[in-house]
Amino acid sequence: MKTNKKLILGTILLSILLICLIYVTNITSIPENIIIFQGEKLNLNTLLGISLKTEDKNIETIQNSKIIQTSSNLALNEEYTGKVNLSVNLFGMKVKDVTLNVLETTEVVPLGELVGLKLYTNGVLVVGMSEISGIDKNTYKPYENTGIIEGDMIVQINENSVTNTEELIECVNNSKGKEVSIKYVRSGETIETYIKPIETAKDDYKLGLWVRDAAAGVGTISFYEPESGLFASLGHGIIDVDTLKLLDISTGEFVTTNIVSIIKGEKGNPGKIQGSVENQKTIGEVYKNTEFGVFGKVSNTSVLNEDLSKTIKVASRNEIKKGKATIMCTLENNKKEEYEVEIEKIFANNNEDNKSMLLKITDEKLLEKTGGIIQGMSGSPIIQNGRLIGVLTHVLVSDPTIGYGVFADLMVEKMKE
Fold first, then answer.
1. Residue of 127, 400, 80 whose CA lies nearest to 269
2. Domain range holding 61?
3. Is residue 265 situated within a structural domain?
């Protein structure tokens, strides 16, 4: 009898734990940031007792003009755009915050054009350190015990702003070997330290720091919005090769480029497109480098190899289906073409990084040219059913025919922030 009671109690306890796990899983599956387009309904699969409510204290205003509250589904006024703070509630108790971003319906021109990229940093980036030989033949490490490390951005020396390496060299030489105050930025925090430059030759002083103020390369410009003049590219940020951190930029520019060569990719060794950015025409200015791409504004539409009246709509991620799609990219002779791919997986709730969908290159012509996805193709627009669904971002090193794409709505959100 006691055994039966224990069995029943164990079964009840196990059932309760299972129900709790199901509810926790359901709540966890609701993204903290949700993106939809104007007029699109927000439909979340939630369990009994889980509801979404607006955080706005003026409930009636929101219900009348912005949101109609219907349990876990929200019907938005078709004209409403902007951000809405919501809470996920379990039987009336708040358990999670959610931000809903309603974007304007967006039409863009998919480009897929290979371009050159020049970025300039917000200060001077420290990329390395080394001991130096003084004019007295002794060796020194003036940076020791200053707190400065690789990845720090030097922005000021002795009250003088530093925006490039030439200004840093001038400030250091003007010190004549006297201790200088240096301000640098790390993770958004400005820190001050002091360092004594070492004379390495007559009137030539050094800190023992290796620095850089610019980066250049090639990539693919993804799409252009004629209404605003804005463009998006790459689908990922520019990472400094020495510090492996996202490059903090002040300005930059996109320029035309000539393809020099294409190195075919193979298992374990991704290929790449090599291009020249010297003596090219400016396409536009860069204003933002983010983990979801590089963004800017076109200033010279005449150099874009595209009919800018041929716009397509940016698809909601709910419209994306597994199956056939195409990517648009520029390879031989600066000629743009579309190539077939297969969308294999869709990570609909992922707003945290740029791995939104997994795709496979199936086009034999592209496989023959490149072996799959190669460096320089990042940013190639992905098109399905006549709509822009995303942008190519990464390749799997173990298999260059497979890679990731980022949702187009994430790119649009970052472009317009």
1. 400
2. 2-103
3. yes
Alpha helices in 98-163 (DSSP H): none
Contacts of 253 (CB under 8 A, 6+ apart): 117, 118, 282, 283, 284, 285, 286, 296
pTM over 0.85: no
Euclidean distance between CA atoms 219 and 134, whole angstroms: 42
- Has residue 126 been placed in a domain? no
Q: Which two tokens stand for residue 325?
A: 């799609």
Helix spans in 95-164 (H): none
**Domain check: are 175 and 70 in the same one?**
no
Amino acid type, 45: N
Average model confidence (pLDDT) for the chain? 84
CA dist., res. 166 & res. 53, Å (int): 55
Q: Tens digit of pLDDT for each residue in 181-224? A: 999 988 888 999 999 998 888 888 899 888 888 777 888 999 99
Residues 370 and 223 in one domain: yes
Residue ranges of E strands in 141-226: 153-157, 160-161, 180-186, 189-195, 198-201, 204-206, 209-225
Whether residues 38 and 144 share a domain: the answer is: no
Q: How many CA atoms lie within 13 A of 183 on its CB side?
A: 14
Q: How far is CA 175 from CA 142, 157, 169, 178, 393, in A?
A: 14, 10, 10, 5, 46
Q: What are the tens digits of pLDDT across the range 2-59?
A: 567 777 787 888 888 888 888 888 888 888 888 888 777 776 777 778 877 776 544 3
394's CB contacts (< 8 A; 6+ apart) are: 236, 354, 355, 373, 378, 403, 404
Characterise 75 by phi-psi region: left (phi > 0), alpha (psi -120 to 50), beta (else). beta
φ and ψ at 271, to 5 degrees?
-80, -175
On whether both 223 and 367 belong to a single domain, the answer is yes
